[in-house]
Amino acid sequence: MIGIEIWRYETGCWKCSTDIPVVYPRGLGGFGGGTWEPAGSILVDKDYCNVERTYSKTQGQEVYGNICPSCGAYQGNHFIHEQVFDSVAAYQSWDRAREDYEVIDIVEVPYPCQDCGTELTYKRSPQVCDECLHHREVEDSLGESVELEYCEVCDGILHPEHRANHHTSYDPEETMLVCDTCHAKIHHKPGFREDLVPGMSRTEAKRQGFI
Q1: In what helix (H) or strand (E) does residue 24 lie, and over which residues does it extend?
Q2: Residue 208 CB partners (closer than 8 Å, separation 6+)
Q3: Which of 120, 116, 111, 35 is nearest to 80 (CA)?
Q4: H/E run at residue 75
Q5: By CB neighbour count within 10 A (0-12 exposed, 13-18 middle, 19+ buried), where does 5 fall?
Q6: How far is the C-alpha of 113 from the C-alpha of 131, rounded, in Å?
Q7: Which element (helix H / strand E) includes 36?
């Protein structure tokens, strides 16, 4: 879940010209489904605004949006977004523009990873978790899809160029998959996972013909 601010301000209804309060859910970007879909279902039950599920001719589908309490006209989400963005552009800052609005509420909305569905706790671009982001980066660098592998010591995601088959024993030969960092710690940091240090050195293992 992620918290997004609800900004409220007054504007003139495009149809009857009555001054009405409208709200703008600022947080996930965009004026359509990106922000309104998760926030709208919450705002319809709030007393501080007049948000309803209605039909948008522009988008050709039902959406959540501000409704004029006087004439019932839907105040287009694109129109509301442009009004807010005009002030942001004038100030060249979202934070400075924020001072012109009443921050009436902060609502919690779902914010899942676009690849695996894991719930995220803060806004990210792209909207993916660390594991899926790493997966994308590996696919981009190799040009193919790969299954993620994890360090058997720290559980961190392994990058193809930063991994090692660490020998826990040379006789019999036993190995485990670890990241470069853990591999270095096992061999060079006193007291770090001494149970994983092999009984003989690599040089001795080679001399005896085990590797």
Answers
A1: strand 19-26
A2: 170, 171, 200
A3: 35
A4: strand 74-75
A5: middle
A6: 10
A7: helix 33-43
- Compute the average pLDDT of residues 176-190: 88
Strands 74-75 and 163-170: unpaired
Please report, for the chain, the start and end positions of each structural domain, with discontinuous segments joined by +.
2-109, 163-207
Residues contacting 42, CB < 8 A, separation 6+: 107, 109
Half-sphere exposure of 22 (CA within 13 A, CB side): 28
CA atoms within 13 A on the CB side of 169: 5
Length of the chain: 211
Q: In the chain, pLDDT over 70 holds for what percent of residues?
A: 93
Question: What mean pLDDT value characterizes the chain?
Answer: 87
